[in-house]
Amino acid sequence: MADSIRYAVPGNVARITLNRPEVSNAVDLPTAYAFEAAVARAGADDDVRAVLLTGTGPRFCAGGDLAAMAAAEDPAGYVRELALVLDRGLRRLAALPKPVVAAVHGAVAGAGLGVVLGADLVVAARSTKFAFAYTGVGLTPDCGVSALLPRAIGQQRALQMALTPRPLGAEQARDWGLIADVVDDEVAVPQATAIAEHLAAGPTTAYGEAKRLLRTGWEASPEDISRDEADTIARLLAGPEASALIDAFLSRS
Q: Count of H helices and E strands in the chain?
């Protein structure tokens, strides 16, 4: 795995860290492939029960690496491959049957929004700024941002981010539904770590199925959603995780 992505598993939490602080964790092609590999590794490890995303340096993620794009022999081909590989990793992240928590800080821009939208719970440092960024350099969104951002914050707000240069502050991003929580800068990573560890100790199967239902419900018909919900809750009821938790609940009453 490239040094641009750090991977470690303290306890039952896979910690994936963006590690290109000298370029604000902008993503080049090797980083995109390394990120995809890290997500696949977390998904394949049965001991991993939750995932934590963080970034080194003063900014979480500045999006795609414009310098790497410009320096490529075929810039258009490079950016197309970069967009496809990073999107594949982010879709795999969103589909993990394990909760994903992100701690963000400094700046989240461009494809960095895609990383945020791929996480399940996002804790932001109070000083964080969120910027669409693509149109500011004459480009358009990738990594599913054109679909996921309007779902998260609404079409008018997504268009406002795309068509005006003003970034969102952390509290506005929370109020708009882009992130889950805002905390003081120095506690963002500890808070997200505590959340990930709490989730890792919980009913992972139920968490994974719940996030699957919530994330895929946009594309399904009401009838298909209802059927999937009924099949899933019936299957989980018969499983050991729910049986133990229900028995414990009933014993308290």
A: 11, 9
Q: What pLDDT score was predicted for residue 79?
A: 97
Q: Residue 50 in 3-state DSSP?
A: strand
Sequence-separated (6 or more) residues with CB below 8 Å from residue 189: 54, 103, 105
- How far is residue 252's CA from residue 82's CA, in Å, rounded to a whole number? 53
pLDDT in tens, 13-72: 999 999 999 999 999 999 999 999 999 999 999 999 999 999 999 999 999 999 999 999
User: In the prediction, which pLDDT does 122 show?
Assistant: 98
SS3 at position 28: coil
The residue length of the chain stands at 253
Query: Which two three-digit tokens encode residue 98?
Result: 């394990």
- Residue 118 phi/psi, 5-degree rounding, is -80, -20
Confirm if 221 and 229 have CB atoms less than 8 A apart. no
For residue 248, the 8-state DSSP code is H
